[in-house]
Predict the 3D structure of the following.
Amino acid sequence: MDLQLDRVTKTFGGVAAVDEVSLEVEETTFFSLLGPSGCGKTTVLKMIAGFVQPDRGAIYIRGDEVSRKPPYKRNTSMVFQSYALFPHLSVFENVAFGLRYRGVSQEDRKRRVGQALEQVRLSGHERRYPSQLSGGQQQRVAFARAIVTQPALLLLDEPLSNLDLRLRQQMRQELINIQKSVRITTVYVTHDQGEAFSMSDKLAIMNGGKIVQIGSPQEIFLKPTSEFVLKFVGETNVIDCRATAVQGDETVVRSDDGLEFHVKNRAQPQIGARLKLYFREEQLQIKHRCSNKNCFPGVVMGAQYFGAMLTYTLRLSTGRTLRATTVNTRSNAFVLDQPIYVEVDPEDCLLVPGDSRG
Amino acid sequence: MEYSILDNVGRKLVALVRLGVICILVAPLLVTVLLSLSKSFTFPPSGFTFGWYLNFLDRPEFIRGLTTSIVLAASTVIVSTAIGSGLAFVLVRHAFKGTGLLKGLVLSPVSLPRIACGVSLFLLFVNIGVTGAFLELLALHVIITCPYVVSVLSASLAGVDESLEQASMNLGANRYQTFLRVTLPLIRPGLVAAAIFAFVVSFDEVTASTFLVDAHTTTYPVVLFSYMERGGLDPTVAAGTSILLAPLLVLMFILDRYVGLGRALGIWRVS
């Protein structure tokens, strides 16, 4: 176990920025903290690095408690959102900075800096200064500076957010490749779900200072345990409804406009309880005819193109509108006013308690 | 077309204003130099002589005063930047409940009449029995220059991204090493500017210093002042001022060459 947080809490001005956060990160794992801005994910990272002291709780790095240790005694390496390269030092001196304070001989320093720069494909730039490099190159230097000390933990604070889209996607892949080759346990902070899902072995979703769900990207995407996670990691349809029956492992609910849905539900709601039914836009399928449960007739009202994906707005016969996102291929091409059927798998539905009125 | 004509007029106006400003700034210096070479203390000058320069060099009190002032200003620079950088660091990096009060206290000598500073320090030193004009003057000058040093260095420190210091500590440098290797090099232009301010303000200070000088330790401006008071209303003081111009210009040239005066003083270059 490279990192363990045990009920870590930090309060700023009476408000808990981080509230009883516990987590464990195994060796060589790429672990992401994902959440909206202000959810406390950066504060967690700063507490791991030692820039912020927790009020309560303990932090262990490779089994050692470091909660009260200063940053320079923790053996973590951080890549900052702003890169934080030293503007008055050359690329070589920037990367060699951490080795200097670890008592590495000058000869070894040279060799290891050379290796690290090779790893980020920046060999030959040793004598340049940060201001002479492009954003992507600065990013690589920051990364080389972090891995060259072979830390117990690599901490990344939204390192890709200052790059343009194309570079960001390229760096994403490069970052994973390097992380896998140096095998350093990594904690990655981001608000970008695409990044978190595509890069992580495991991720934690945070909201309001708390971790709301931890799991693999697949688990979190397919089995969200709360309304927040579901809404946060994708676009969803929501339907107000009431539970009408329980049939085996399925709950039957009826919406206000008379649609009946079957839901594979983990929790068994009370009959008559007000509920909210959620399913993702991608989980709503558009069909030419019905074959299953949860299938309703409607017409195509509009389409929105996002390049590879497209989102249809559909009106059901009851007048309700739903949104369905599909891959933009010819087999998914529907025209305006075309009558269709929509269907959602009972497995893909999530029921949460609705408000009590009505 | 219309745009370029307007643009041209604007350019010429700016050039004119710039020329005017330079004239206003240079005129007093020019008058001083001309007067120092004039036979009589009148303007426009009449006749030409180096006599006042010889008179200046003949009087040991001027040379002694000049030496005292230079040593005093240099000492002020050292003490004031040392104290000032510490204060600035606390004010900018470690805000606490009394930060505002501390800042107000540190900056207060600027808004206090100099004469009040002089009198109160004089009374204090007399009452607690401190003697030694040089140390008294040093204390006074440090108090007077500290606000400038703290303001300049605070601005400079605030411009240094805190994440750079965090990055340094994250990489294994302790606070002291971080200050030496990261913070200090990044605020160097600010330090140079603060040192220049402290030197100039100390060298120029006369009002408060008059209360603390004694027969052996007198600063240069006070010497000039008392020379005029004792009836020396002749161009010797003009000579005494002009003599400083040459080394000052050389100093400014060197500073601009190696630090960038504009950058050091926080002035943008108008190119």
User: Anything to note?
Assistant: Chain B touches chain A at residues 161, 163-164, 166-174, 177, 182, 185-186 (CB under 8 Å).
